[in-house]
Design goal:
It is built from 14 helices and twelve strands. The protein is α+β, with helices and mostly antiparallel strands. The C terminus is likely disordered. It binds magnesium ion.
């Protein structure tokens, strides 16, 4: 039977989420960069270093010619009114959770392709919503209501994943393109080989070398010779060029479970202060525990690692008394594990990982009243944060911990970090609330 696959791709994702969170940025050309941009040599307050690059550009910035991975100074030359924004990874992660939950309403067969893309096999479910186009329109409407007006998506509909992905690329932003089987050849004739997901520039160059420059040539190439040159992948690509796109949508709950769940964090400045280091450790334990709970997993072993200012690494692990996904239990164990490392050599980075995972349902429920009430508290806090934004409710200890700057008010010079240093204090603040979004 012919399948119906939807590919949903969020438009200018990180930049749109920033615009959703901050109304002052809406409709403006903005460039999102890593937090390191404000700390690298040559940066001044509010102005990124000349070494920084654009990690994501808003739709308005793209219209002016700003591209992803373009050096910031170059982007600023093309578009002088460009506004620089520091990224907020937690925000993007949280919004991703929200839109995935929306997609799931329309089919249990959902494959998460990346942080801002997913496939939905709606072959059997579209009939309940009035057809494939109606599903796509409902997804767009749900996004507007529940995430906000500024986070938009392009949707492609086709009989296979790769073709649906190609269709979603055809119209941006806010596109909705149906690619019928009968139109596949005609559409492929109009686009370069590299527009197909799976044909990178080096593959296209290899194909050119053997005389394939168009999809028609790829479709007509002798299959045996193609297999010799490009392996099985070549044969798969040829099938797609012939409109035969059969790869299944692999639902995320069918993906083999992970063996471990871990997080790492580079401190805004190297520190020997146990209070500061342990503040970060608590936050990492919260993140690991939350991810475990989201996945319905519990773990029986925990490890904690420290990278020092001199790049040396120390690591310890411990088997826990019982399976857990509670942050406090993780923290108690991790604190013991890393305390011997803190105090002498400045700490640069911390890691926390939960190992020996099992599905929560397969593990015996906690017997102790205290443990049970901890679990209820976790569930309640998760529910509030699911609704209003990650870390809206958090432990009081997370209000303290790291100050954003060193004692003398200046940033320490040797602290390139991978995340926003005010991370434990931020809240997303975008319009989840329908009343706000639908003014
Ligand atoms: Mg995208």
């Amino acid at each position: 039977m012919n399948r119906t696959i939807l590919h949903v791709d969020m438009n200018s994702y990180f930049a749109s989420v920033e615009q959703q969170a901050n109304p002052l940025l809406r409709g403006k050309a903005i460039a999102v960069s890593g937090p390191g941009a404000l700390r690298l040599p040559g940066s001044t307050p509010g102005n990124p270093s000349p070494r920084s690059v654009v990690a994501a550009a808003s739709i308005e910035a793209k219209a002016r010619g700003v591209k992803t991975a373009m050096p910031y100074f170059m982007a600023k030359q093309i578009c002088p009114e460009l506004i620089f924004v520091v990224c907020h990874p937690e925000r993007y992660h949280d919004v991703t959770q929200r839109f995935l939950r929306i997609f799931e309403r329309y089919s249990p067969l959902m494959e998460i392709f990346s942080m801002d893309e997913a496939f939905l096999d709606i072959t059997d479910t579209q009939q309940y919503f009035g057809g494939a186009v109606a599903v796509a329109q409902r997804i767009k409407a749900d996004l507007r209501c529940e995430v906000g007006n500024w986070v938009r998506c392009s949707i492609g509909i086709a009989s296979g994943k790769i073709l649906a992905k190609l269709a979603s690329e055809l119209k941006k932003p806010d596109g909705l393109v149906v690619l019928q089987d009968k139109d596949v050849a005609q559409t492929l004739a109009k686009v370069p080989l590299t527009d197909l997901c799976g044909i990178a520039h080096h593959t296209a160059a290899h194909m050119r070398a053997v005389g394939i420059t168009t999809f028609a040539e790829l479709a007509a190439y002798p299959t045996g010779a193609l297999k010799k040159e490009f392996g099985v992948r070549g044969v798969e690509l040829q099938a797609i060029a012939r409109g035969q796109d059969y790869a299944p949508v692999v639902p995320y709950n069918k993906v083999p479970p992970r063996k471990s769940i871990g997080h790492a964090y580079t401190l805004p400045f190297n520190s020997t202060d146990p209070k500061k280091v342990l503040g970060v450790l608590m936050r990492l334990c919260e993140q690991v525990a939350r991810r475990a709970r989201d996945d319905g997993m519990v773990g029986e072993q925990v490890s904690a690692g420290v990278r020092f200012g001199n790049m040396r690494f120390a690591y310890n692990h411990e088997r826990l008394d019982s399976f857990t996904n509670n942050a406090r239990v993780l923290y108690r164990a991790c604190e013991k594990l890393i305390l011997p490392f803190i105090g002498k050599t400045p700490v640069r980075l911390l890691t926390v990982t939960l190992h020996r995972l099992a599905f929560g349902k397969q593990v015996q429920l906690p017997l102790w009243v205290g443990e049970r009430s901890q679990r209820q508290l976790d569930t309640a806090v998760d529910e509030v944060n699911d609704r209003y934004g990650e870390f809206i409710v958090r432990r009081a200890s997370l209000h303290h911990g790291l100050e954003p700057r060193a004692k003398d008010g200046r940033r320490s010079p040797e602290v390139p970090t991978s995340r926003d240093e005010g991370w434990h204090k931020q809240s997303p603040g975008y319009a989840m609330n329908k009343r706000i979004a639908l003014k």
